[in-house]
Amino acid sequence: MPAVFLTIDTEFAWRHHAAGLDAATIHTRSVEPAGVGLAWQLAVLARAGLKATFFVDPLPALIYGAEWARRMVEPVLAAGQEVQLHCHPNWIGAVAGDRGAAHGAFELIDLSADRQRVVLARAIDLLMAAGAPRPVAFRAGSYSANDETLCALAALGLAYDSSHNGAHHPWPSAIALDPAQIAPVVRRGVVEVPVTVIEDRPGCWRNFQICALSTREMRAAIDHAAAQDHAAVTIVGHSFELANRAGTAPNRVHVHRFEALCAMLAERRDVAPTCHFADRPALPLGQGDRPLAPDAFRLRWRQAEQLWSTLVAERAA
Predict the structure, then answer these.
(1) Which Gene3D superfamilies is this protein grouped with (predicted)?
(2) Upstream peptide bond of 172 is cis (omega within 30 degrees of 0)
(3) Which end of the chain is more exposed for a tag (fewer CB within 10 A), N or C?
(4) Mean local confidence (pLDDT), 112-129
């Protein structure tokens, strides 16, 4: 049966920093937006009895102080969920209050192999200083990782990476795997656990992300993985994804999707159990798992739903 990795990238959104907002407001709009952020998501997960991984980016602590990393780490651990490592390297070199004028490279793959290792080592130190256990898994910001990233992770003692995303391949998701690769595989000394994709149209991939798939598509993808005995299903969300881009009002379409996703995973726990990377689940490696095939009806339904989300939910004040 597939192991389900329900993952939430938890971070300060750069757009709020670039808008000149202070740390407290950035936290409110990125981590706890509109009452549907981290605390609310943890509560929904608890009611459903699900495990989730929160990939936390600690690098804004370099700019705003360690308190803001702790405010992401502590609630997750208190809820019995796991914290793993996430990072957007552009925070290195950023300056509070300059509206984003100063920053480092936005993509990890734009850094040399040596520089990647330095950035990742610094991020690990900051995450642990915020109270997290030493991470065993990583996801790059914007899925921006390559084979050099995997080598750096292995050298730093991490066991898993979850940056390969066929919908964003070959840039910025630049690990040299097939875009349709969804089964975990050993690569460059770590186990790569790709983000699950479905086939949107022939040869066109769409990642299993709450803001990207309809409830129908999510249900179909999970049931497909269970029926075909896939090794894993890897789902992506964000701390800010259930609110509008301003972080000031819920996006009702995305909120409904998250609630429906948690309900369907709870119903399917016997055939598709959620797990933590720290559980070191026994993952079959190198299987030939294939993404869910295209379906015109599911596609049209999601397009209509996305239009509603853009025109109505995303414009809520």
Answers:
(1) Glycoside hydrolase/deacetylase (3.20.20.370)
(2) yes
(3) C
(4) 98
